[in-house]
């Protein structure tokens, strides 16, 4: 078994669904903080933390927590005192590793208009244990930011990064969006150069996705918005990948890039440890409105109805709306699907063990190392021929250890991943 699988721990994701305003492309579960029952939500969230912890202890399935991620929405719009109380409850309820990665999502212009206010807010986050910030920059062009429905400017980003560094945060992710209608590949690379000037430890780059039910989705239906052609989108993506590699970042997941470590060939220290839990099929507890979790082989999702969420917890009930116990095939299928997002891909041993460790799965002795490979392709026998075709076209690498996408294969990653679903 690989080393990262021998000492599995858990992550915790906490959802804050409130924003100053909703962006025109956003399909996430979020809404305006103005007039929303934020206090009632935070009270309910603390109750959920206690109930979930009590259930884990009762079942004897509680484990140390190695990552905490507060996302949204825009967590940085939340009142500091209520956030602080929530984190105190979290730490009292769960065993959190002393060196846990603790990420907080923030948007520029939401951390405080005055330098002193922002410094005080950042100090409060540090006191809570936050050691990683993830900032939704998206663009460094003010006209493009306005078009996207963002509330900040490029000047806000520069000012916020300066204060964040002055406050001593040394692990910062910046999100960047490309393939915005009206934006050229050169425009996207110009945005990237301006982001690189801040020397963030981590950069996430995503092409704009037009989602149904969003203002952009409605504009696309009426012809008011024209999506960037796939060929242009993919060309920009590969230009971004090359530039980031040249700048010293490792491309460790389809959309994620981290500064390299000191030891050549070893994973850098700035990879998102929390997101890696998802890609490694590790467990995580989801807390908050619409949050999802994966615990003891069960995937669950909380209700997305705010009133129902608060009411359930006021009655002492967990707000779970959906539950599904993974089968052995679910586990290996998900292990391949998520593992292929990583640039190192998946190895047969991890995938097969995900299958074998499922309750009710047929257990077999593995006498030889190549048995992992044989078992893997026995399970995915129907996918083998088509997978080899992709490999022959230079889109997928298949070897004795496992399989991984090539950079060209990333362009059709969903088609390749679907072979294993």
Key features?
alpha/beta; pyruvate-formate lyase- activating enzyme; Arc Repressor Mutant, subunit A; 9-stranded mixed sheet; 3-stranded antiparallel sheet; 42% helix; disordered N terminus
Shape: globular
CATH fold node name of the largest domain: pyruvate-formate lyase- activating enzyme
CATH architecture of the largest domain, please?
A: Alpha-Beta Horseshoe
Q: What is the terminal-to-terminal distance?
A: 23 Å
Low-confidence stretches: 1-6
Helix content: 40-55%
Strand content: 15-25%
The order of strands across the largest sheet is 9-10-8-7-6-5-4-1-11
Task: Compute the average pLDDT.
Answer: 92
How is the main sheet built? 9 strands, mixed
What features would you describe in this structure?
Helices cover 42% and strands 21% of the residues. The chain has 421 residues and is of the alpha/beta class. The protein has two domains: 3-279, pyruvate-formate lyase- activating enzyme (Alpha-Beta Horseshoe); 332-421, Orthogonal Bundle (Arc Repressor Mutant, subunit A). A hairpin with a 2-residue loop joins strand 9 (249-253) and strand 10 (256-259).
């Amino acid at each position: 078994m690989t080393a990262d699988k021998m000492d599995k721990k858990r992550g915790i994701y906490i959802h804050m669904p409130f924003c100053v305003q909703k962006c025109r492309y956003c399909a996430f579960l979020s809404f305006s903080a103005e007039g929303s029952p934020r206090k009632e939500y935070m009270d309910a969230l603390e109750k959920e933390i206690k109930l979930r912890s009590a259930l884990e202890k009762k079942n004897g399935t509680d484990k140390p927590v190695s990552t905490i991620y507060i996302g949204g929405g825009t967590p940085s719009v939340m009142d500091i005192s209520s956030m602080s109380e929530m984190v105190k409850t979290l730490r009292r309820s769960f065993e959190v590793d002393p060196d846990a990665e603790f990420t907080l999502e923030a948007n520029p212009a939401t951390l405080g208009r005055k330098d002193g206010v922002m410094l005080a807010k950042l100090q409060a986050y540090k006191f809570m244990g936050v050691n990683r910030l993830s900032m939704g920059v998206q663009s460094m062009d003010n006209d493009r930011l306005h078009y996207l429905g963002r509330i900040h400017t490029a000047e806000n980003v520069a000012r916020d990064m300066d204060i964040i560094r002055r406050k001593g945060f040394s692990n910062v992710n910046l999100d960047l969006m490309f393939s915005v209608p009206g934006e050229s590949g050169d425009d996207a690379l110009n945005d990237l150069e301006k982001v690189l000037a801040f020397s963030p430890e981590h950069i996430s780059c995503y092409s704009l996705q037009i989602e149904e039910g969003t203002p952009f989705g409605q504009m696309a239906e009426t012809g008011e918005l024209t999506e960037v052609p796939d060929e242009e989108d993919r060309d920009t993506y590969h230009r971004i990948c090359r530039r980031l590699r040249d700048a010293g970042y490792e491309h460790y997941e389809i959309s994620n890039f981290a500064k390299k470590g000191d030891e050549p060939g070893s994973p850098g220290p700035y990879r998102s440890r929390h997101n890696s839990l998802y890609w490694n099929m590790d467990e995580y507890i989801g807390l908050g409105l619409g949050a999802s979790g994966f615990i003891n082989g069960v995937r669950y999702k909380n209700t997305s109805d705010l009133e129902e969420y608060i009411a359930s917890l006021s009655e002492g009930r967990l707000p779970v709306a959906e539950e599904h116990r993974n089968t052995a095939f679910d586990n290996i299928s998900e292990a391949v699907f998520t593992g292929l997002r990583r640039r190192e891909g998946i190895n047969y041993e991890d995938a097969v063990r995900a299958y074998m460790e499922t309750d009710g799965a047929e257990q077999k002795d593995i006498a030889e190392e190549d048995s992992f490979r044989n078992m893997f392709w026995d399970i995915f026998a129907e996918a083998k021929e088509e997978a080899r075709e992709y490999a022959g076209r230079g889109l997928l690498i298949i070897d004795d250890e496992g399989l991984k996408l090539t950079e060209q294969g990333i362009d059709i990653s969903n088609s390749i991943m679907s072979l294993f679903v």
